Each structure stands twice: as structure tokens, then as C-alpha cells.
Amino acid sequence: MANLDVQPKRKSSTWIWIIFVVLLLGALFLLYKGCNRTEPIKVDQSDSLAHDTVIAGITPVAATQPNWDAVDFTIPKAKYEEITDTAIIVRGNQKYTIYSLSENVLFAKDASTIQPVAEAKLQQISASLIKRFPNAQIGIYGRTDSIGGTGYNKTLGAERANAVKNWFVAKGGVLETALSTHSVGETKPLATNGTEKGRAQNRSVEIIAFPDSTGN
Q: CA-CA distance, 100 to 186, in Å (whole number)?
């Protein structure tokens, strides 16, 4: 009988190929899932934003706006050494400061163009705002008496407030982003409209500075 040299089959290479195929299929499955993702990946940008802010040297500004409708225009008078013109009335408390100018100082009757004589007074106010409230939110209120229609007075108050705002930006060096305008018109009078003296008090412009930008 002839001797047969029979050797066992080598199975190790077969298992290697099986493992390789399984791994390849797994990788293809993960790649397919990634390419078909429908939900966006959520990235928390708070840390990176804060980091970039620190690098840029910028202090974040509070998003809260002052409560412009809750201003008390009868708060006590204040004295600032830089305000030397007696036509400018300053009032203040811990929340805000009010600079007031009468209508006849700023404008001609029924007009909204700032008179040349008023520019020196507005310059004192703008310099005080820049000195004391560089980061404040500043509201400019236009006020009228009750003579004339309500709609007319509302429009006139808005035009006068905008005229003061435009002057502050163009000539006073105040940032436009800090300014807002508010037309009171004949509503919320400071004094009675039944007398000429009272009506004169109601024809005015007030500039209110909120140092903390909250007004609370």
C-alpha cells in the first residue's frame, strides 16, 4: 500500500479574511449612517464665544433695555459742575439722570429745526453724557402742550426728539447705537395745560441716561 502524505487544511488564513470582511462591512455601515444624518450636530458655542470676547477685550453688553415708560420726570434736581447754563435743568437718582430743555430754547414755534442758539446748550449736555455715562442707554423724549390735535402733537414730538438725536450724533460725539427717541406729545404732561405757564413747561425735550441699561 502506498504511503499518502495527508496534511490538515490550514484554517487560520480563512478566519483572517472573515474578520477583515466583517470590519469592512462595519466601517461601511458607519460611513453610510454619517452621510445620511438629517439632524444637525449641536455645538455649544458659549465657551468659544466667551473666549473670543475675552481675547478681543470686549465686555458683553446687557440685552435688557430700560423701561422707558416708567421714567419719573419729577425726581429731585441734581448739580453737575460741567452744566453751567441755567437753561438746562438736571434731575437725577440712582437709576437715571434727566437733562431738560424747554421748547423755546431749542426750536421756533411749531418747528423741529434746532436753533443756532441751542447748540451751545446741547454741547454741554453731550459732553456731560460722554463724561458721566459712556456706556449708558440714552432716551430722548419730545413733549408738547395740548394746543393742536393729538396726532399733530405726537408727530411734532417725534420730529423734535429725532432732531436732537441727529445733532448728538453729528456734532455731539454721542454714539447713535446708544440713542433712542420717544414721542410723548401732549400725553403725560409735566404741568397743567390750563395755563400758559403750565403749557410752557410741557413744551420741552428731555434726555434720559440709564447708566446700568436696565431702568429697574
A: 16
* 160 Cβ neighbours under 8 A, 6+ residues apart: 103, 106, 107, 112, 142, 205
Q: Give me Rg for the CA atoms of the chain.
A: 35
What is the strand order of the sheet 97-102 is part of? 89-92, 97-102, 204-210, 137-143, 179-185
| Residue range 171-216, pLDDT digits in tens | 999 999 999 999 987 777 777 778 878 777 778 899 999 986 444 4
**Domain chopping of the chain, boundaries:** 79-210
| 108-151 per-position pLDDT tens digit | 888 889 999 999 999 999 999 999 999 999 999 998 877 888 89
Residue 184 Cα distances to 75, 158, 160, 192, 211, angstroms: 18, 8, 11, 15, 22
Q: How far is CA 199 from CA 19, 114, 147, 191, in A?
A: 94, 20, 9, 7
Distance CA 175, CA 61 (A): 15
Was domain 79-210 assigned CATH 3.30.1330.60? Answer: yes
DSSP state letters, 153-202: HHHHHHHHHHHHHHHIIIII---GGGEEEEEEETSS-SS-TTSHHHHHHH
Distance CA 110, CA 121 (A): 20
